[in-house]
Amino acid sequence: MIKQPNVILGNDKILVTMGKKGEIFGFFYPRRDYAQHVEESLACLQIDNRLIWTNNHEWYSTQHYLEDTNIVITELIHGTGIKLNIQDFAHQTAPVMVRKYTISTERDINGTFFYYSNLCVGEMHKKNSAFCDSDVRLLAQYWQDNYIGIIATPSFEQWQVGKAMDTIWWTNARYDMEDGRLHNNKEDIGYLNTVVGWELKLKAGQSREIVIFIGAAPKRTQLYKMMLEIVHEPVANMLENSRQHWINRLSRKNIVKLSFLDDMPETKQQIIEAFNRCLLTLDLLNDPKHGSFVAAPEFDHDFEMCGGYGYCWNRDVAEVAIALLNAGYPEYCEKFFDWCRRTQLSDGSWFQRYWLDGNTAPSWGNFDNSTQIDETGATLHAIYIFYKSLKGLEKAEFLENMWITVLTGAEYLMKRTIYGLHDSCLDLWESYAGSFAYTSAAIFAGLKGAASLAKAYSEPGLASRWLERAEFVKNTTIEKMWLEEGYFAKCLADGKLDYTVDASIIGTFTPFNMLSPDDPKERKMIYSMIDYIVNRLSVKVNGYHGIKRYENDRYIEGNPWIVTTLWLSKAMLTLADSLRKEHDNEKDISKLLQSSLNYIKWALKGTTSTGMLPEQVDKHKGHPAWAIPLGWSCALMIDNILLLETFSEEKGNERI
Amino acid sequence: MFSRGDEKALVVWFSITYQTDIGAEANINSTFNEMGVKLKFAYLDNTEPDGKGKYVLFTEIKEENQIDAINKKLNSIQGVTEIDSGVSRNRMIQTIDFPLNFLGERAVIARSKTFVNILKIIRENVIQPDGLLLLSGLKGGRGAAKYVMSIIKVDKSNFMDILRELFLASGWGKLEMDFDRFTCNGKVIVRDSFIADAYGSSDLPVCGYMSGFIAGYMTEIMGYTFQVREVSCKSTGNTVCEHIVSPVPDDVKLEHIMKEEMR
C-alpha cells in the first residue's frame, strides 16, 4: 500500500519514515533499502469504551523537527481534550528508535494506552514469529536474522501476540484491544500483529509519559542485550546526545550567510533552514557502509503506481555526491565512487539502478537498447569533479584507484557513440527510447572528464581520443537535434525528431557544460532554451511557477517537479554567475537572480510541514507529491543555495 | 425493476413519506386498493429519522392522468407528509430512492456474481484469504447488530429472528437455526446462500464472509466472543450451508481445535 511520509528520521543503522500523525510507515534495517519491517506501528487510546487510533481524523496534528536535528516533534490534539506530544528520534549509536509519548488531558480519563504494531519482519508476512518475554517485558518479532523488539519505560502491563489475518479473529490484537484488556498471549507464528498496553488514569490537568523503544538486531541475544541496556538509559541523555550529534554534523558545513537577502529576513531564514534540512536528509538517505544512496525512502513497495524509489541510481547520486562535496562533505564522494568502482558492469557501464549493497535492482533496463547511457556519462563526470577537488597524495591515490573504472567507462561511451549521436537507449525519465540531448551532454561531460583524468594519468593518446569524441558528440547533437525554433528536440528516434519541449535539455548547460555561456553563440542558445522551458513548462501553483518535466507529461498527473524547477533556477544562477565576468550585465544578472529566487521560493512552498523536499508538487492543491523526500531535489536545493551564496560574497547586495 | 407486464401500460412509481405513529401505512394500502391499483413492487422503511416512514412502490397504470388522481387521494390521508411520483419511460430499471439506504448506511444493489468475483480475486491473490473474508464479514455483522440495537430492543429471544429477517431482506439466503440459548452452542443453516449459488462448485466451503457476519452480529449482541465456521457448503455439493456457532472458550489454542474439526 502506498503511504507517502511527512517526515523521516534515523541514524547510521536505521531509517524510519512517518506520517503526519506520528504513525510509522517504514522502518528500514539494516540498510536504507532493505528490509522494511513495518506495516503499521502506532499508538491507540481506549477511552469511553472505544478505540481512538492516533492516525484517525479526529486528531488535529502538527509536526516539525527540532531545529537542526533529525528529532521529530509531533503534537496531536483530540476534540475531547486529550493531547499527545511525541518526541521521536533514533538512538545516537544503536539501531533503536525512541518514541517518547506525553499524554495530557483537560478532563478525567480512565482507559488504556496501547502501542500497536503490525510488523512484517524481513518484509515477510509469512513465517514470522513473535513472543513476549513477560519477565523482562520485551516483545519481539523475528524472521531469519531480523529481530525487531519493543520495550518500554515504564514496562508495559499487558500484551497480545495475535493473528493478524486468521479466522480465529478474537486473537487478533486489533480486536483484543477493544475492551481495554488484552489476553496476554505470549507467542505465535504466521502473519501476526502485536500490542502492548498501559492503564491510563488521569485527572484533568495531569499528564503521563510513556517511552517506547523499537530496536532491531540480527540475533536474539543481541536484541536482548541492546534493549535491556537502552531501557535503563535516561531518555533526556539520549535526546541530548542525538541533538548534539546532528548539530555537530551540521557544524562541518560550508557556511552560507546569504547576506544579499538581508532585506528579506524571512526568505533568508527559510533558505538557510532548507539548506540544513537537505544536508540532514541526505545523510539519512546515504548508506554509510556501502556509500550508496536511495533516491527516496521506498513507499511503493509493490510497484503499484511506479517502479519504486528505494534504490540507488548513479544519475541521482552523481548530483547528490557533488552537492555534498560543495557543501563541505567530501567523504560521501569518496565512498560513493568506491561503490561505483565495485558495481561497474563488465562492459564499463552502470546498471539502471542498484540495491544499496551493489546488487542489481529490479529493472526495465536490462538490454543495450533499454539501458540509460547518461548514467555512465554522469558518473565519469562526477568522478572528475571530485578528483579536481582533491590535493596532493590523496589526489594521486584516488586516480590510481579509479583509473580502470574511468578507462572502461570511457571506452563504453566510445562504443555507444561511434556516429556522434549515441545509440538508442532510454532517457533520464526512463520512459522514452531514442537519442537525447541530455544523454549526449552527459556523455560529452563524461568523456571530457575522462580525458582530463587520462592526461593526469599520463595517457595523452587516450585523452585526445576521448576529447575528440566528446567534441564529435557535441557537434553531432547540435547539428541533428538543435531546432531552428531555438531549443533541443526532446528525442531523435527512428530518424524523427520529437519537438516536445523537455526541461532536461538544460542539462546541456548545467551540470554538463556542453554549451558554454562564455561562447556568445552558445550563450544565446542557453538563453533560448531557458525561455522555451519557462514559456512552455511553467505551471502556476502556490502563487509561484513551478516547471514540469515536459509538455504532455502524464506521469502522476503531470505535476511540476522540484527537480526541474530547481534545475532551471540553477541554470539561471550559473548563467548569472558567468555574466559577472563581463561589464554592463547588471540588469540581466538581477533579472536572472530574481527569477531563480522565485523558483526557490516555489520549491520551499511545496515541502512537507517538516521541510521535506518532494519530487513533485501537486498542481491542483500545491501539496508535496509523490516521492518524499527526494535526494535529487535536496541536491539541487543545495546547489542553488551555494550559488546564491556566491552573490553574497561580493558587495553588490542590491541586485534584487 | 424490470417490467414485463402490460406493454401498453405505464410503469409508475410513488415515494410516500408519512408519520409512523398514526396508522398511515394501512390507509395508503387501502387507497391503492380502492383505486384498483395493483402493486408490482414495494418496500416500506420505518427507520427514517424523526418518526417518519417511507413507502416506495411501483405499479402499472393505463393512463397518465390517473397519476394526479392517485396523488390527490394520497395527499388527503392523515399523516402523509410528502408524495413524489413519476413515470419510468424505459420500462427497465427505475431508481426512486437515491441514494439507497440499508441498515442506516448508504447501500448499493449488486449482483451476487459481482460479490463473488471480488471474493474469488481475493482468494487467488491474497495471503490468508479466509481470514480476510471472515474479518470483513465480522465488521459487517457488528455494524448491523449495532444498528439493529439502536432502533429496537434485541435480546436472546429475538436476535436470531432478526438475523433471519436481515438475511432474507438482503437476499443473502434463508436461515434456519438450531441454537441452545443456554449454552450458546448451535448451528445456522443457510439455504440458497448467495455466495455458494454464484460461486459454483468448490473443494472447500466458500461462505466464510457469512460466518464472519454471523460471528460479528452475535458477538455484538450477546456481549461475548463467538466463533462461527462453515462446516458444509452448497458449493461443495451439500444441499445447504451449515455454520457451527459456539462461544470462544478461554485459554485454548482454538486454531488447533478448529483445524482438527475441519478435517
Could you walk me through the main structural features you see in this protein, from its secondary elements to its overall organization?
The complex is a heterodimer of chains A (656) and B (263). By secondary structure, chain A is an alpha+beta fold. Chain A has 3 domains: 7-249, Beta-galactosidase, Chain A, domain 5 (Distorted Sandwich); 255-285 and 503-656, Glycosyltransferase; 329-499, Glycosyltransferase (Alpha/alpha barrel). Helix content of chain A is 36%, strand content 23%. Chain A is built from 14 helices and 26 strands. Chain A has helices at 173-176, 220-230, 235-251, 265-285, 314-326, 331-343, 374-389, 392-415, 437-456, 460-481, 520-537, 562-579, 586-605, 631-648; strands spanning 7-10, 15-18, 24-28, 38-47, 50-53, 59-65, 72-78, 82-90, 96-105, 109-119, 128-133, 138-143, 146-153, 158-163, 187-190, 192-202, 207-217, 425-426, 433-434, 491-493, 496-498, 538-541, 544-548, 560-561, 616-617, 624-625. In chain A, the strands form 7 sheets. Chain A has a 9-stranded antiparallel beta sheet. Chain A has a 5-stranded antiparallel beta sheet with strand order 5-4-10-16-14. Chain A is elongated and about 75 Å long. Chain B has 263 residues and is α+β, with helices and mostly antiparallel strands. Chain B has 2 domains: 10-98, Alpha-Beta Plaits (2-Layer Sandwich), CATH 3.30.70.260; 112-262, Muramoyl-pentapeptide Carboxypeptidase, domain 2, CATH 3.30.1380. Helix content of chain B is 38%, strand content 26%. Chain B is built from 8 helices and 10 strands. In chain B, the strands form 3 sheets. A 4-stranded antiparallel beta sheet of chain B has the order 2-3-1-4. Chain B has a 4-stranded antiparallel beta sheet with strand order 7-8-10-9, with helices on one face. A two-stranded antiparallel sheet of chain B has the order 5-6. In chain B, strand 2 (39-48) and strand 3 form a beta hairpin. Chain B starts with 9 loop residues before the first strand and ends with a helix. Residues 254-263 of chain B have low confidence and may be disordered. The chains are: A alpha+beta (656), B alpha+beta (263).
